[in-house]
Task: structure prediction
Amino acid sequence: MSERVTLSRVAIHATLIILAAFFLVPLGVVALNSVRGGEEIARAGVIGLPHELRWSNFSRTWSSYCIAQHCDGIQPYFWNSVRMVIPATIISTLLGALNGYSLSLWRFRGDTVVFGIMTLGVFLPEQMRLVPWVIVLRDLGLFNTISGLVLIHTVQGISFTTLFCRNYYVSIPPDLLKAARIDGAGFFRIFWRIVLPLSPPILIVTVIWQFTGIWNEYLYGVTFSAGEQQPVTAALIALSARVSEAPQYGEQSAAVLLAAAPTLLVYLLGGRYFLRGLTAGAVK
Amino acid sequence: MSVVSRRSLLAASAATLATPGLTRAQSVKPKVTVISQWSAGSDGLAITTLGKRFEAEGGVWEHNPVPGFTTDMMNKLRAQIIAGDPPAASQLKGPEIAAWSKIGAVVDLDQQVSEAGYEAVVPAELVRLSKPYGHWIALPIQAYRINTLFISKKAADRVGVTSLPATWAEFNAIAEKMKAAGITPVANGGLKWDDGMKWEIALCGINPDAYRKAVMELDDKTLKGADVLAAFRQLRKLADWSDPGAAGQHYSTFMARYMKGDMGMLLMGGWAQGVFKNAGFRFTDYLIGPAPQDDGKIAFDLNSDEFIFWQKPQPEYLAGQKLLAKIVMAKDFGPMYSQITGSLPVRTDTDLTPDGFSDGQREAAKAMAEAVRNNRVVLSLAHNMAQPNQITAAMIDVLTEFVHDNRISPEDGQKRLAAAVDNVRS
Amino acid sequence: MNWRARWGRILPHLVIWPPIVVSCGYVLLFSAWTVWVSFTRSTLLPEYSWAGWRNYSTMLATRNWQIAYTNLFIYGTCFLVFTMAMGLLLAVLIDQRIRAENIYRAIFLYPLAVSFVVTGTVWGWLLNPTFGIQKLMHDAGWASFRFEWLIDRDMAIYTIVIAGVWQASGFAMALLLAGLRSVDGDLMKAAQIDGAGPVRTYLRVVFPTIGPIFIAVLVMLLQFAIKTYDLVVALTQEGPGLASTLPTVVVYDFMFQRGELGEGSAAAVMLLGSLAFVLVPYGLYRHWQRRKAEAHV
Result:
């Protein structure tokens, strides 16, 4: 049993508590605001304790707040996001695994270049991709559809998922593959029998990463969807300040918490797998 | 993508409106798809009400609001145009109407407008914006006065002020008194458009003709002249009198302190009334009136929203556009829309005595009518009415930098503004 | 060769090439398109009329770009350094086998789940001198506490660093913790037997082992830094004035708000071009590493 080096336990705990406070304060502010009334926030400021608990902020935001001419709250938009995020996450993860597998374990000429180009994709700012996507979606006839958004997020996500998966797969011992190949296993059999069973840790990482990234994305969600098909990020913005309106901070904060619930849950529940997945793959 | 020939398209659309094929269109259910940024609040309610009215008259209404800033809405519009599917009508304003009409085919509304006798009851500046190339292609929906002054009643009482200052000198005197009493004289926020607005209200108050020449015509001599310099000096004073934490803040952040009397005066557009009301403040909590005018006569700094009509081949959209135009130009449209948003009806012959209107609106509408009569209406810079967006943004950049950097002297600020305009002027 | 074997040879290609082609193609095509547009006179819509270097010279001459580009280096360096440092600190602390590890890990990881818009908005409230932390401190009795970075022209960009570090440290922590946990226990024991104290053990044994992880974290943080947009818009709105703007904000502003697609594209190209400063050395480093590894086989 390896012994870990121990620093002073008190110092460790003290530091951790201070840091935890730093990390928790923003969440605390939003949580407090989500149960304060809008007028109270307007009077007393955006940081403060509630005078009375306004739980109705949540129910109003979820099911009765009026956005455009529909007074269904953010609920429909929430489900739109779900419908968009799940397919995009699954497809981009699978394709990332496939790509990572082929790039790391089946070497071909120029595979480093290919990998380099794909990795470059993670650096492209989304602002410069907007107009090209409009043209592409128009030519594919997918403009203003959820499928269009799924396509966009899938293709963009492949850059990330390939990056993660490939770095993970290169640490699979080559002897394993050699033995399998000698036994006559081909491309798919190796993938199915050897690589995929080893993959859950990194797949969880990519799923968490993609889910969060796509769920929180705003620019494309607003531009490439219309009306009631918009994702929940658009609904969040609809609750924010306009030039001729004052912000409804109470309901906005409640909406933020509701909209962030899925991603928060994903990280809370998947956090340890996130770590585990990065353990094996990170060492390259 | 080829640049569409405007003239040929207008000719084609004019032909379409005039042909007997129109009677065929009238037997189709009128339909309209609309894009705007009005997804919530009173704006959202107003356009929803318009939609209900449209449907009550037998049409099919499809409104697609784009939440976020105006840029996001224009992005959506741009995307739809590139995709070959523009909406039947969309929100647009100011010189952008002219600019966007060059990239997409628009509908010629001349015939309908002249039948309704509309042009005569609309302020000349709005007519000019709606007919950038000689034909009506957009219809104004609502107007706002930018150069409005609000004084917190509690703050006013503390320094013994009972009426609005008439000139900038009087304003400055009140501000000094407030400062001495521990009140923050200016309650404005520090967002870019707010900074631009403070400057334009200053300039409009100093000399509306200088404003017209400098801001609307970009006349170099005026930009480098004494009135613009005076406006910068006034802007520096306003910046110094604002809350130091105002940078990046929306003015509504200061509402509570303003009403309590810790902050004194707000230079804002007429919509602030609605914002105050929604926050639970009463009309008696503040004094409202025109911003200071040094020459004593009324000038009106105008902001407005319009619908532009995009060409669509299907007859139901044609019919829908006709119906929408009819509704928007009608005399009862102003009361319906403006009572909800707190704006001013576009038609100068609108009667504002009904209860749905506030005194603030009545006073502003009277000011607008008088300014129209005396040709003292100017277009707002900060709200994208006076210049196309690239020029506006370049000028606002200079103004917002000036406000938030007191190392820049008014002379420097003026030089920078003139240089920025030169740079962007093409 | 029989039918089945032939099919077995072709099928993999049919499956692996399309996704690779699509994702490489998308990167190359979109980048090429942007470069192309940056040399045209595009304003509201893409147009294909040649403008030479005009867009570039215009962008370079605007204060927006100059401030943004400088800020990119300031922000990028600070963000990378401090996030890495914070991540390392958190990882080392959590690695100490404390009982509440799961809770702490959740606390440090959850910011990754929050969207940048929300982060920027909330930190904008917290760092506001008039009603944020400064006011809270004043109310609590500490009257001389000052934290006015948000409205200070020279310091505003650092508020974005704070928000960015808050958001991304958890990710750095996760990767670094994973690395720490994978350090060979025997090496550690050997170091301790040699009498090395805690600090020296970390310096001599642990950190060198997780060297490659540093690189991985840096790459991910770099792309966070380059793409920072919502944080600026939500936290400072580029303010005061233009003091805290960043290149992506300028790109969006010029492309879409001002209807200058050409100029905005030029800004985007310049932004990506500056990435070359980082990526090219990295690429060479990896190449050299690979060469070294191959030489040892």
About this structure: Chain C has a mean pLDDT of 86.
